[in-house]
Amino acid sequence: MTTPSTDTSARRLLIVGPPGAGKGTQAVRIAEELSIPAISTGDIFRANVSGETELGVLAKSFMDSGEYVPDSVTNDMVRSRLAEDDAASGFLLDGYPRTLDQVEALDGMLSELETSLDAVLLLVVETEEVVGRLVERGKEQGRSDDTEETIRKRLDVYAEQTAPLIDVYEKRGLVRRVDGMASIDEVTAALRGALAGR
Ligand code: AMP
Q1: Span 35-94, pLDDT tens digits
Q2: Of the listed 11, 46, 60, 154, which one is catalytic?
Q3: pTM for the complete prediction?
Q4: pLDDT tens per residue, range 92-146
Q5: Superfamily, domain 11-196
Q6: Does the active-site annotation cover 79?
Q7: Dihedral over alpha carbons 73, 74, 78, 79 (to 10 degrees)
Q8: What's the pLDDT at 78?
């Protein structure tokens, strides 16, 4: 028997929304406030691409074409990250799960850890606004997948493969919708409110 956690601030959260919705920016802010790690699969992949690891070499071609990295690879990566000590009292996953298979894999990982999700934060944005933001980010940060063609592809892949996840989590009563079109500070405040209202 494991002792139940007495840490009342423990949170196991996802942040979901299309590319360019502001997930990464908001995840870092909310995670810091809750003293939990923000775990971005995109960031982990990018670090591996920069480091030219085996995983990075594999991920790069998928990322550059706006496709998802295969589930088996992504799931293993998340499983080891969630097993690290800093994730024991909570985490905010950004960019995972993104497919129905990944939802199932995450369910399995959490049940192995004898825990479950507390909430799914959904950032609601307009597609055309998102394209504009991503084109800007591409210019500022030089992200190789922020070209207009790849952005459109990523939005299509999101609509096809990731949007259906929202229904799954909706049925579990976990989804908290937040307007992602407001200013960065306003969105952070709304997310805070959404979490407090649970
Ligand atoms: P992001 O930074 O979350 O926009 O992710 C950038 C890219 O990394 C995506 O377009 C995918 O190619 C890859 N990626 C990130 N997270 C996942 C995931 N959960 N499953 C598959 N591919 C992912």
Answers
A1: 999 999 999 999 999 999 999 999 999 999 999 999 999 999 999 999 999 999 999 999
A2: 154
A3: 0.92
A4: 999 999 999 999 999 999 999 999 999 999 999 998 889 998 989 888 988 889 8
A5: P-loop containing nucleotide triphosphate hydrolases (3.40.50.300)
A6: no
A7: -40
A8: 97
Cβ(162) to ligand 1 under 6 A?
Answer: no
Cβ(158) – ligand 1 distance below 6 Å: no
**Alpha helices, DSSP H, located in 6-86:** 23-34, 41-50, 54-64, 71-82
Structure tokens at 68: 């998802």
192 has catalytic annotation: no
Domain ranges of the chain: 11-196
79-85 long-range contacts, CB within 8 A, separation 24+: 79/105, 79/109, 81/39, 81/44, 82/39, 82/109, 82/110, 82/113, 83/113
Q: Find out whether the beta carbon of 98 lies less than 6 Å from any atom of ligand 1.
A: yes
Q: What are phi and psi of 105, to 5 degrees?
A: -65, -45
Atom of ligand 1 nearest to the CA of 66: 10
